[in-house]
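Here is an idea for our session: we take a single protein and study its fold together. Once you have written the record down, we can walk along the chain together.
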Amino acid sequence: MSEPCQLPVIIAGAGIVGLALAQALKKSGAPFCIYERDQNLHARFSGWGLSVNSEALRHCLPNSLFDRLDSIQVDPRQRPTSDIGTGFLNLETAQPWLTIPSSLRRRVDRGRLRELLATDIDVKWTKRVVSFKLTDSGVSVCFSDGTKVEGSVLVAADGSGSRVRRLLVGDRVGRLNPVPAHYLAVTVRLTEDTLNQLPHPVIFQGSHPATGYYMFFSTLSTPEVNGSRRTSNPYYEAQLDVSWLSEGPEDVVPRTNAARLARIKHMAAKDTGFHITLRKVIDDIPDDTQVSIVRLADWPTTSWDGFGGRVTLLGDAAHPMTMYRGEAANQGFTDAKNLAQQLALWHGGSKTRQEALTAYETEMAQRGREAVLLSRQACLDAHNLHKLTPNSPLIGKRNSPTRPC
């Protein structure tokens, strides 16, 4: 068997999954370089909260970082628990309609998780991949600033709109598929009294039986975390999201921020039947609140020519999906764990590069495609309470995405 190449693995994208892979490669002693198109870690909004199944991350991180996961929970007083949320609610009554099977997880702040994963990682900023070409030893990657770098493998962790994915499979095959629903999100501040009146203080979701409107709520920070506890107005931060199916011209997303906020408030208005506790939280959203549009789209993972193990995909670049099952990050962490393990086998001389990458991609493609399609169905099911059953992927237990390749 030929000697493994000593050139670095090139990671394109320093989001949470690309950084998890960087940590895993660093942990195993494999050479790597990581590049990111943004100017710095805080150049863009990092997202809200996410539920982390930490087993894959445990494999990626050194103990010193893994042990800090509890400190970045939205409420650090909470321990990792299977008691997150209330099940799926009927928004008319604010009572559980169906129970969602529990699993051990942490609810963490996505931005702080990214900061944690970037610890001691030398990210090369302002580096956007525009092309690559094969070399005798691996691959040469060209960036938008005209610079080039040579590595053994190019790993694309450049997100759902991945440039590398489209270079691999072509623009037509690699483009995202719109999902027929619209999604709006806001960040709100709540008093402790208001939070305690809600169905759950950390996270809940549900839909309305008559309108099909969907709502998701998750606490983002406590007064201890955001520094307001010692002030005269301590507050909790939370994300509040709503979505609805796109079934006609009347369902388009309003063009202005004010109109989008009005749409959210109309969805919860008294004549639509939202429970008064939920309606009050929405009615109290200040008029100057920024409303974010989340474009719902996916890409069921398909095969590609990786050029003998020289180019591959990771995380949202490989299996972008809707958020209704909360699986995207955990699937990506599993990718990072499995790919790092396969690369270690190659660097250790027990597999060729192509054998290692084929093993990774075969498992990941099957798992990723299944997760994408389940998440798409979960999105559709979330807007029809009467057709929702325990067998829906919205409700059913999430498969542990930690199986080895």
